[in-house]
Amino acid sequence: MYVQLKHLGIGLGLVLLLTFLFVKTTGINSDEHNRYSSGLRRLKELHATLDKRLLESRYGLLTNYDYVNRDFSHLLQLQTELAQFPSFLRTTEKAEIHKLLQEHASLLQLEEKTLERFKSQNAILNNSLRYFPSATAKILAAQSETRLNPSARGHEGDNAGRSAISTYLHGGKIPLTQTPVFGCSIIDAE
To answer: DSSP 3-state assignment of 157?
Structure first.
């Protein structure tokens, strides 16, 4: 008799547990859950795609930033969509997700500033790499001309600036306070 009551109690407990779990699962709207989960997955994918596009831009595989700008715009739009919480979440869960979304929004602002700095610096780098060969050729041509013709440097003979630096490096006192420089003056002579 005791064993039968024990089995009956266990069976009744299982039925109550299953009923409780069934009620809890029907409280979750699967469409809302899928929409929100899909948004979170899309957020992760967009961050990965943005990183990929930045690397492609850095190594010259993308010639413009249209894809980067579009992906970042989608990130901002998705951030707004994720602020629409599913109705089945409790208030504490919504508050926790809201806090995480605020942190993500501040990180997106920082990422936007960093992205603009990257685009600027990458453009400078690409322009420098593009014009480096022609600048090098001009410098080498000018250098060979000055070796062949020392008067092309703007003066002949000893260099007072070089002598002053050499004297200083060898522990001597520099007798000069200024010397002429090669090229054009950067300050108007008065």
So the answer is: coil
Give 146-164 pLDDT, tens digit per residue.
Answer: 555 555 555 566 677 777 7
Residue with tokens 């050729």: 137
pTM: 0.56
Nearest Cα to 117, choosing from 129, 128, 125? 125
Taking the CA atoms of the chain, what radius of gyration do you get in angstroms? Answer: 36
Residue 23 to residue 18: CA distance in whole angstroms? 9
Residue 34 is classified by DSSP as H
Q: Quick check: 75 and 46 in contact, CB under 8 A?
A: yes
Which of these, 118, 132, 113, lies nearest to 59 by C-alpha position?
118
User: Are the CB atoms for 54 and 67 separated by under 8 Å?
Assistant: no
Contacts 24+ apart (CB under 8 A), 45-53: 46/71, 46/74, 46/75, 46/78, 47/75, 50/75
